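Hi U.,

Before I forget, here's the chain from the pilot set. I'm dumping it here mostly so it's searchable later in email.
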Amino acid sequence: MGYKSIKHNSKGIKPHKAIVSPDFNYKTVLVRNHWDYVEMWLQKERKLEALMYWKQAEKFYQASLTIPETASPLTIYYSFLNATKALLKVKGKTFAELHGATGRIQPGDTNLRNEIITFHRNGILAGLCSYFGETCNGEQYSLKDLLYNLPFVHRCFNLTFPTGYQEIFIPIYNPQFVFKDNSRQAWFCAELPENYRSQHTLNKLIPLGFERDLGDQNKYVIRTKKRFEWHRSGLKKANNLLVLTNYHSKLRKKIHYIYGTNTLWYIKRTGQPNCIDRHPLTIMFASMHRLSELARYDPTVLHRHLELKQNWLLSEFIKGSSIEFIDQIACEITNQNLMQPAIRYPY
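Structure:
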C-alpha cells in the first residue's frame, strides 16, 4: 500500500469525537453513564458553575423519560440548554441569557417545512454556534431541513420523504490517519461499504476534497487530497499533535458520527439543496427548541405533527436526540473520546 497508520503512544490515531480541542494523548474512556462521568470530571476540574448546569441538564433529561412525546420536547430542550451552558462555562465563553432561537409557523398546512426557526445573534444558541466557528446572524431554516441534516435520523427522513431529498450522508468504516513510507506526508483515509463502492459515489466525494486510493485494489479506500506533515524524529516531532489537531478540526466538519457500541462515521455532502453546513449540536438545539415551543404554546399543532406521516421521523428525533446530544457535548466538555463499555476498542 505504501503507507502506514499514524500511531501515538503505540495506538493508531482515529477521528476524535471532540472537534475543538480533542485530546489525542488521552485514552478512550469507557462509560456507562455520561452524566456521572462528566459530573466527576467537572468536580475534579473544579468547574463548579458548569457542574450546576450539568446537574440541571440531567434532571430535565430524567423528567423527559416519564412524560409523553407531546410534552417531552420541553424538558429535553431544557436539558440541552443547560448542558450547552455547562460547555460554554467550561470553555470560558460568554453568552447572553437568552435562548438564541425563535420559531414561527408559516401559513399553510401542518407540515415540517412550515415550521421556521431563526438563529439570533445573541443567546445560548449563538454561543454554541460561535464555539464551532459558525455564524449566527438571523439565518432561518425549516424544521424539515434541519432534521434532514442530522445523521442519526437521515435514513428515517429519506424513508419518510422518499422524493425531493438526496442522500447526503455517505457511510465509511476503518477511518484512520496514515503517513507515506519514507515521507512526512500524512492524510486521512477510510473505506467505503460494498454497496457504495462506485464511481457514482466517488463523484459525490471529489468536491469535498476526497479521491480514491488505488494502492490496494482489494479494497475501496478513499483519502483526503490535502496532506499534513507527520515527523517521526527531529525537533518538529513535538508539534505533531498540534498539526494533527488543526487538520482534524477541518476534517471533522466533513465527517460526522452516530453514537453506539461501535461509532458509525459518515461523510456529509455539502452544496446540495437543503443542505445546512452546521454542527449536529446546533441543529439539534434549534430543532428541539422549536418543538419545545409547540409543546408549551401550541400543543394541538405538535399533536397533529405526531399524527401525520412525519410521526415516525419526529418520534425518532425526540427519542434519539438526547443520547446523541449528550454524547457529543460530553466529548467537547472533556476533550475525550467517550465510548460504551462491553466491547474492546482498537484505540
